[in-house]
UniProtKB/TrEMBL annotation:
Pathway: Porphyrin-containing compound metabolism; protoporphyrin-IX biosynthesis; coproporphyrinogen-III from 5-aminolevulinate: step 1/4. This is Delta-aminolevulinic acid dehydratase. Pfam families: ALAD. The active site is at K203 (schiff-base intermediate with substrate), K257 (schiff-base intermediate with substrate). The gene is hemB. Its EC number is 4.2.1.24. It comes from Sphingobium fluviale.
Length: 332
């Protein structure tokens, strides 16, 4: 008997792909409802649902209805929701002080959810853009610059405000330098040592955030861009520095954002650091998938599950996605 000199035909990788049972057995990665965090938009009123046209299938909900959404999420096995408020225009100001109001929309939503659905985690966004009249995430000086250290003072107040309302995970998305460490210290000093921080560590100045800005009502207000604080899409080494700093400052987990176009960053972070990494599949990515499905470019459910699985393959612990409820139900 002569042994083959080339791997083929002894090695045939199609063998393990030949049957559904075998494919299931050899799957290297799996998507589960507990991998998903569901972002939800809150608005004033009661019984209010406001569809967001640039984000088809996603609505803003008043506090009473957001509680019902949180219940559905928990029932579908989603471990955590992420809240974003659409602040009324008259409550927005240059200094974003509504972020510090213990009865602001965000705090009312946190309390209502924690009262009725205590089993679900609540992640709250820390940044000033839903509260500022200019739509920037930080305070702006008279020359139009975003002021780092003075902004952090407000972010600390915002974090403590959300913590007092019952937030489980504080997620600073503002990209000011040094904010994670100072927020961590303030949480410790105020008896909130068990509240997690998920740092938006590598957050890029992306063109994929448009529909989100419609959802929180900041798109029409924003002048200019966010390039002096959010990262340049050209950079990856810098993302590793951002992540290293946020870990050193006390982050429990780090986030890469946007998602799909930045999976190389997820992989690089995962290879370098022993830290849980989450990705945010952002509004523009969601809208692209919905548009592709509506145009007949692919099957919606298959597109959703394949893209979410790609996050797992890249090394993500979990994904923030507007498809979370739909995907959890498909998986469940
Ligand atoms: C702002 C914030 C943004 C998103 C989450 N938090 C937008 C921005 O930075 O302008 C985007 C999320 C999405 O597009 O789904 N602090």
């Amino acid at each position: 008997m002569t042994l083959p000199s080339a791997p083929y035909p002894a090695l045939r990788l199609r063998r393990t792909r030949a049957h559904a049972w075998s494919r299931a057995m050899f799957a290297e990665n799996r998507l589960h409802p507990s991998d998903l965090i569901w972002p939800l938009f809150v608005t004033e009123g009661s019984g209010v649902e406001e569809p967001i046209s640039s984000l088809p299938g996603v609505s803003r909900w008043s506090v009473d209805l957001i509680v019902a959404r949180a219940k559905e999420a928990a029932q579908a096995g989603i471990p955590c929701i992420a809240l974003f408020p659409n602040t009324q225009a008259e409550r927005r100001s240059d200094d974003g002080k509504e972020a510090l109001n213990p009865d602001n929309l965000m705090c009312r939503a946190i309390r209502a959810i924690k009262d009725s659905v205590p089993e679900i985690g609540v992640l709250t966004d820390v940044a000033l853009d839903p509260y500022t009249a200019h739509g920037q995430d930080g305070l702006v000086d008279d020359q139009g610059r975003i002021v780092n250290d003075a902004t952090i003072e407000v972010l600390i107040g915002q974090s403590l405000n959300q913590a007092a309302a019952g937030a489980d995970i504080i997620a600073p998305s503002d990209m000011m330098d040094g904010r994670v460490g100072l927020i961590r210290a303030a949480l410790e000093e105020n008896g909130h040592q068990d509240i997690q921080i998920m740092a938006y560590a590598a957050k890029y100045a992306s063109a994929f955030y448009g529909p989100f800005r419609d959802a929180v009502g900041s798109r029409g207000l924003l002048k200019g861009d966010k390039k002096t604080y959010q990262m340049d899409p050209a950079n990856s080494q810098e993302a590793l520095r951002e992540v290293a700093l946020d870990i050193a400052e006390g982050a429990d987990s780090v986030m890469v954002k946007p998602g799909l176009p930045y999976l190389d960053i997820v992989r690089a972070v995962k290879e370098r650091f022993a830290v849980p990494v989450f990705a945010y599949q952002v509004s523009g990515e969601y809208a692209m998938i919905e548009a592709a499905a509506a145009a007949g470019a692919g099957d919606r459910d298959a597109l959703v599950l394949e893209t979410l699985l790609a996050f797992k393959r890249a090394g993500c612990t979990g994904v923030l996605t507007y498809h979370a409820l739909h995907a959890a139900r498909l998986l469940g």
